[in-house]
Amino acid sequence: MKNRFSRAFIILLLLCDLMLIDSPSFSFLNVLTSTNINEKTIYTAEKAAAYVINNAVAEDGRFKWLIYDTYGSWERPSEVAKIGIFFASLYQATGKSIYLDYAKGAAQWIIMKAVPERGGYKWACPDRDRPSPGWWLNIAVWEVGEFLLMMYKLTG
What we know:
Blueprint: H1 2-18, H2 29-32, H3 39-54, E1 57-59, E2 62-64, E3 67-69, E4 72-74, H4 77-94, H5 97-113, E5 115-117, E6 120-124, E7 135-136, H6 141-155
Antiparallel strand pairs: 1-2, 3-4, 5-6, 6-7
Helix pairs in contact: 1-3, 3-4, 4-5, 4-6, 5-6
């Protein structure tokens, strides 16, 4: 099981390199929505998407992807947001509703995991080095914010 997510992550990294993207959040928005996008890029992105879809974990109609390491599996909203950005961008590039469905499912999972605090939200940070729940509001949250804003613009 450990290698399943690792392979999907490597595919996304290779896709990121193929598209010459330097965004740390794997934001494919600029490349996948540009007017000079080529068929090879779309083909490669859709192959990666098929693999990532195959590894999705459904939870009450929502989607997440697990991170596997030597100790087992765990989930992180910021990692789900990166995959959500990929699906939302691919939807914008292709118009295929399956990608929007997975992006929506990822956004709904992130929202389900949010805990209100002082007018904002926080998420549990499963970290092997810290005791649970390990709530966090750090630099990784911007990926969640970027994704949720993107989904708001796409879906209203």
